[in-house]
Amino acid sequence: MDVLQHLIMGFSVALTLNNLLFCFIGVFIGTLIGVLPGIGPVATISLLLPVTFGMNPVTSIIMLAGIYYGAQYGGSTTSILVNIPGEASSIITCLDGYKMARQGRAGPALGIAAFGSFIGGTASIVGLMLLAPILARAALKFGPPEYFSLMLFGLTMVTYLCTGSVAKGLIMAVGGIALSTIGQDPVSGITRFTLGSITLMDGIGLVPAAMGIFGVGEVLTNIEESIKQEVFSAKLSGLFPTVKDWLDCKWPIVRGTLFGFFLGILPGAGVVIPTFMSYAVEKRLSKHPEKFGKGAIEGVAGPETANNAATGGSMVTLLSLGIPPNVGMAILLGAFIIHGIQPGPLLLTKHPQLFWGTIASMYIGNVMLVVLNLPMIGIWVKLLKVPYNILFPLILLFCFLGVYSLNNNIYEILIMVGFGVFGYLMRKFGFEGAPFLLAMVLGPMLEIAFRQSLLYGDPFIFFKRPISGVLLVISFILLITPLFPKIFRKRKELAEASKD
Amino acid sequence: MKTHRFMSKITFSLCVLLALILFLKGPGYAQEDVAKFPSRPITFIIPIPPGGASDASCRLISKEAEKFLGQPIVCVNKPGGSFAIAIAAIASSNPDGYTIGYAGHPGLFVTPLTGKVPYHPVKDLKQIMQFGYLNIAVTLKGDSPFKKFEDIVAYARQNPKKLTYGSAGVGSFGHLSMEEIARREKVQFTHIPFKGSPETQAALLGGHILLATGDFNYSQLEAGEIRLLFLIAEERSPEYPKAPILKDLGYDIPAPTFLNVAGPKGLHEGIVKKLEDAFTKAMKEPAFVKGMKDLRLTIAYRNNKEMDDYVARNFEAFSKLLKEIGLIK
Question: Domain map of chain B by residue range?
Fold first, then answer.
């Protein structure tokens, strides 16, 4: 088989001592910065780009790619341990991961996150290897109307993210959409609600908002209760997932891989959406949905698998078309360009060593990451034993540094603190952060896709195009299915009433 | 233990006092001798997120200029507000030569006119030099039936509003140029704004728009997937010598798509000269020339006085252009 031959050639490139060393360096750095909240693969890769100037292109790409997918492994660590999303793609892991940590199950949570990441990462590379050109072409079929319907589909999932009152969840979703309008109107360029601030011209960043609501908000809530009381009071039960955990998670991992991989391919969809969707789907399909939000391990397995699968998916678009589907890939593209290589349709023919060498090294990297992350679980878990009154100032410090490291903009720290207060108030009144953040992510994309589509002049364009139409129908069905049991019950009642 | 509490109260007060002193005094920059400049690292502000061709070009030239200045140049990305955040940072910094950056055209000619920014693009900046041009092109799919630009205009005349073109957003040069052309030719294009060049290119390849403006992927070009219709530029590109520019098509629309180095106003003459010299020499370095060739960017030069005039002229030109298109009143 052709692919096998190429893969063997790729491994021969990747298994040289030099490339192995830099692969390890890359995934190691990636894990570290994934753990650190705020600073992410984008900033790190841009810092290390000059270092790679003199290096062999294949080696540089192997290292930089390692940083990127390594960060998706590390991001879950702080989400689980201290409720701070290390990366935007780990926001949803906070929901159940942190609860598991508070119940003494931080080890299994970290473990399943690592394994899920490995499976998702590896499977997505297989997909990349076998299906890249076809998938890339298919992804191109998504135009503005298709994006709109996809985002709408995503929004219908919002209700599945709520553990408490659905009405409150919807209020939060509307709030999220409303806040997402801050910034420049995408079609007319007029600034909305920016109060004259140029920082707000681009809207409220997802990372400051998420770190505020989850990280800072959690700290504020915890210190309101007495500091003496242990935040992590439950006894530590085991460092690894149990057999039951594995059995519970097998389908979430499979579904997470599929979601992550296919959604990661779409330009502009980002790595956040697959994680939220995975969580919502797992909750919907679970036999015990009420456990979600209280420490259900499926709520960690699915999203963590999805975010790693999305890295493979996003490389499909980058390598086959030369179009970066998200910011992380854009900087990787920059790395390619600096070495004189332009990914695109000719990459396979012009630089086969680079393509297959990178793919082979990604397999190796994923293995390295699992080996690296598992023993670290023991160390991370010990971190929780630090008294909270020492831990929380450190948490706040990392949050501040992390947010500043994004854009070197001090006002984003203020935004984060503002959201921290907001997050604290939310918790007091029983509102949830997840629907709010999902709406903040989807809102802008929904709006721009909608308005772009309308520019074509036909208001029914969403129904006339096949992919868009199908997505809309599915969304509609999903919206009304919860009503069916009620309808059947009503009819039964009516039928029984008429019998008398 | 009363002494214990008393001691910790003193310690606390001392800490607060120390913090206040440091905060109020701040890092003091005494007015330096021009001869000693630079005596510490220089910050180069980049107005876009890391990873694009322009970001790479700034890092390339900074790396070469370091050698002639004897101090490291630290590149810092401050994206946002269509370049306004970065340019505001440059304009409001201490005019001691230690804060400079790439003050790109959106933040000079568009954002200040369409919105409020805390700086005046001509009066609050001192241009140091220009080192290149960006690639802003109008591309179409390889198998598109349109062969020349005249075909596009003819099609638009017969099918008003059917000619869809994408751009990297309202106010981007792709948008402004196409709208101005439409106005002069008295035809109607339909503008579909996207968030950036990658999304625009994806939409073009997927057949959702007929034309795309902005940066493009040259691997696609070489593979024949896309074709260059014309370049939104003032000079022919050495990489694509056959591609017409606006002037060739008969439109004298300003296209200042430069890559430059600028600092805040009030920079001492001597410091400007030193910086200009260093970056000018950097432009000739083989590593820079090769890098720009790999990035497919055009190398071009204007010195500090020429740049000041050029920017001032274009600011006037764009005030007029934006009014004509109707983006501002």
Answer: 39-133+257-325, 137-231
- 3-state DSSP assignment of residue A457: coil
A248 is in which domain, residue-wise? Answer: 2-464
Q: How many domains does chain A have?
A: 1
Asked if residue A469 is part of any domain, the answer here is no
Say yes or no: do domains B39-133+257-325 and B137-231 share a fold.
yes
In chain A, what residues touch B170 (CB-CB under 8 Å)?
Answer: 184-189
Q: Which residue of A has its CA nearest to B77?
A: A407
- In a domain, residue A475? The reply is no
Amino acid making up residue A56? N
C-alpha triplet B299, B305, B309: angle, nearest 5°: 90
Residue A321 falls within a domain, yes or no? yes
- Judged by CB atoms closer than 8 Å, whether chains meet at B80 and A201 is answered as yes
Q: Which residues of B are less than 8 Å from A268 in CB distance?
A: 195, 199, 202
Q: Where are the alpha helices (DSSP H) in chain B?
A: 2-25, 53-69, 84-91, 105, 111-114, 149-158, 173-185, 197-205, 218-223, 269-284, 286-295, 304-325
Mind telling me how many Å the CA of A60 is from chain B's nearest CA?
A: 14
Measured between CB atoms, which of A141, A198, A342 is closest to B218?
Answer: A342
* Closest residue of chain B to A198, computed from CA coordinates: B81
Range B137-231: architecture per CATH? 3-Layer(aba) Sandwich (3.40)
Residue of A nearest to B48 (CA): A407
* Residue B163 to residue B160: CA distance in whole angstroms: 7
Which of A47, A198, A333, A412 is the best substitution to test chain B (most B C-beta atoms within 10 A)?
A198
CATH (residue range B39-133+257-325): 3.40.190.150
The residue of chain B nearest to residue A350, with distances taken between CA atoms, is B219
Residue A403 and residue A208 in contact, taking contact as beta carbons nearer than 8 Å = yes
Of B190, B217, B197, the residue nearest B295 (C-alpha): B217
Residue A57: inside a domain, yes or no?
Answer: yes
> Are B81 and A201 a contacting pair at CB < 8 A?
yes
Chain B neighbors of A344, CB-CB under 8 A: 217-220, 222-223, 225
Whole-structure pTM value: 0.81
In order along its 329 residues, chain B shows pLDDT tens digits of 555 566 777 777 777 777 777 666 555 444 557 788 888 999 999 998 777 788 889 988 998 999 999 999 988 888 877 888 899 999 999 898 899 999 989 889 988 888 888 899 999 999 999 999 988 899 999 888 888 888 999 999 998 888 899 998 888 888 999 999 999 999 999 999 988 888 888 899 989 999 999 888 878 888 888 999 999 988 888 888 888 888 888 888 888 999 999 999 998 889 999 999 999 999 999 989 988 888 888 899 999 999 999 999 999 999 998 888 887 76
Chosen for mutation from A452, A454, A464 (greatest number of chain B CBs closer than 10 Å) is: A452
Positive or negative, the CA dihedral A95, A101, A103, A108 is: positive
Q: Which two tokens stand for residue A215?
A: 């990280």
Query: Inter-chain contact B170–A188, Cβ cutoff 8 Å?
Result: yes
